[in-house]
Amino acid sequence: MVAFHMFCHEDARLAREIARPPFEEYFRALNEAGRRLVARHDLKDYRDYDTSMRRLRSFTLDGQIESGGAWVGTPDEIKAIIRPRGRRRSASSSTPPCRSISARSSYARRRNPCGCSQPTSCRRLPKPRRRRDRRHRWRTRASRVLTPSGRGAGKFTQPRWTLRLRAALLRPVAAGAAYCIVTIPLTVLRGIDCDFSGPHRAAMTEVDYGNAVKIAWQSPRFWETDAHIYGGISWTAGPTSLVWYPSDRLFSPKGILLGAYAVRADADVLAERPLQEQFELTRAAIEGLHPGRGRELEKPMAVAWSKVPHSLGIAARWRPGRENAYALLNQPDGPFHFAGEHLSQLGAWQEGAVLSAWRAANMIDRRRRERRGEGSTDGLLRRTRPGIGGPRRCPGRSPPARSCPRD
Length: 407
Prior knowledge:
By secondary structure, the protein is α+β, with helices and mostly antiparallel strands. It contains 13 helices and 15 strands. Strands 12-9-13 form a three-stranded antiparallel β-sheet. A two-stranded parallel sheet has the order 1-2. Strands 3-4 form a two-stranded antiparallel ribbon.
């Protein structure tokens, strides 16, 4: 599913007639953009792209209505589509604290923290994670701890090995290796004192990173009860850019409303303002769309990617004329191989970062095989995971024309 479409009208026939032209124009524009992208770039990084485009060209309004990808019709018709989903969620959330299970289970016949001693599985306990091999079962390791007053309390903690691992991560750890794949964003990496070569360090400084700001509120779902909005975006003027409505947990008492998602210059302007001023700007934008509802917003939260210590930006933005730096960073610097969304044709997306990492791992494997004098130089990851690993992009290709999904 590419996008979600909804249109409501008192007359079902008119609803389809009005919604059909913009729906068809939307997918026509997507197909045209995809055709131009294929003509301009060799999209080897994107698996089955041609299959996705053929499926996209086959989309019709009637077909999307039948599959649930488009909600078009009268209010009663749309409610009939939505309500079963809400019932399934409410039914799953109304499970009693303790539900009976088979006595053969390893969690049966023991006293639960809620006080019951029947053969039950208490929901307050962490659920067991089972391996795919059913001959073995992973059991949650719990320990009994003491409260500050000294009396024993039945508190189940996380597995001990997890606590030890987290404690170990708090102190520096040195490890020796023949190769290293560096996935740290370049904005952070160029501030670390490392012994990279001069050309590679210079190439790291030639890429800029974009900024983005998100501001969210918790509130009653008035957009559903008042305006029958079940997901989607309302565009606003000013640096806040938009209001984004949630499409999950429909008909629940409260929800998370995104009051701003700003990028580029708007994000820089918004991030420079004090937090309280950012909150008031988004509250005013929501109040303008839904009069009288701004006072119901609570528990705001704001994130500016330029201020996140281990990111310092949302995604790399390669400018024209910096193709040499892009090509150089796609080549190893001695034992160091670089990977990430900033070195992929699918910039700003997790898929691009994963494909870049696959390529770096295959370069290491190919280099290791060449040193050992093995006949085959195909990447090990390509052989173990057909169609996913291997060299999927020419390192000398120009950087992506668009590195941010909202650019």
